[in-house]
Amino acid sequence: MVSHSSKPQTAVPPLENGDRLSRREFERRYAAAPHLKKAELIEGVVYVAAALRFRSHGQPHAQLIGWLFNYQIATIGTALADNTTVRLDLDNEPQPDIALFIEPEFGGRVQISSDDYLEGAPELIAEIAASSATYDLGDKKKAYRRNGVREYLVWQMFENKFDWFVLQDDEYVPLLPDETGIIRSQTFPGLWLAIDSLLNGEMLQVMATLQQGLNSPEHQTFVQRLTNQSRS
């Protein structure tokens, strides 16, 4: 008589809000939960996103994507990611709404892992904050600062407020509009935002202002620098 014995398989625990996990365990549980569309590990704590609404997330998200996509396609050596998991450090694996970064072969710091995740700090991250405003401006902001995300954009939908932070001396300081009401990125020359137009839903003016930035000498110089970097 032949007896067969096998070890019982251990079920993967569910991924739930408030879990305190290592990054490896977070990834294991997230991979076993294909029904989840967005989960993040921030300072070792799991955050699972609630269902997303149109005016408080879907629409402003699309507007920022459109603005940044037009910049990216006009700027060689840059890449744009929508809701892509980023391995920042051992305690932080966020899934930012939008990330704009310089590609590795053009001198950027982000690497694309063999299993197709982003590793390292993108140069720019943007978040749409509705119910997530507390941790977007709290622990998540601290993690982005500590890991060297150079520019961090947060659109607070309930307040209709847009914060653009830039990293200076290891601290985030507000990047303010100039006298014409335009915020100009320090990391991505030519990335210009007519802030009042954005908050008022005037996307044609937002895109017209961006086009001015793309036509500027500083954007042309930036593109040339990236091009030269890829050849070195």
In short:
The protein is an alpha+beta fold. It is 32% helix and 23% strand. Strand 12 and strand 13 (192-194) form a beta hairpin.
Structure, described:
The protein has 232 residues and is of the alpha+beta class. 32% of the residues lie in helices and 23% in strands. The chain has a six-stranded mixed β-sheet with strand order 3-5-8-9-10-11, with helices on both faces. Strand 6 and strand 7 form a beta hairpin. The radius of gyration is 20 Å and the shape is globular. The N terminus is likely disordered.
Question: So how many helices?
Answer: 7
- Broad structural category: alpha+beta
Low-confidence stretches: 1-5
- What Rg is obtained from the alpha carbons, in whole angstroms? 20 Å
How many E-type strands? 13
Return the average pLDDT rounded to an integer: 92
Order of helices and strands: HEEHEEEEEEHHEEEEEHHH
Biggest beta-sheet profile: 6 strands, mixed
Distance between the termini: 70 Å
Shape: globular
In which order are the strands of the major sheet placed? 3-5-8-9-10-11
Portion of residues in beta strands equals: 15-25%
Proportion of helical residues: 25-40%
What secondary-structure arrangement, pairings included, does this model have?
Blueprint: H1 23-31, E1 39-42, E2 45-48, H2 54-73, E3 78-82, E4 86-87, E5 98-102, E6 111-112, E7 118-119, E8 124-129, H3 133-136, H4 139-147, E9 151-156, E10 161-168, E11 171-174, E12 182-184, E13 192-194, H5 195-199, H6 203-214, H7 217-231
Parallel strand pairs: 4-7, 8-9
Antiparallel strand pairs: 1-2, 3-5, 5-8, 6-7, 9-10, 10-11, 12-13
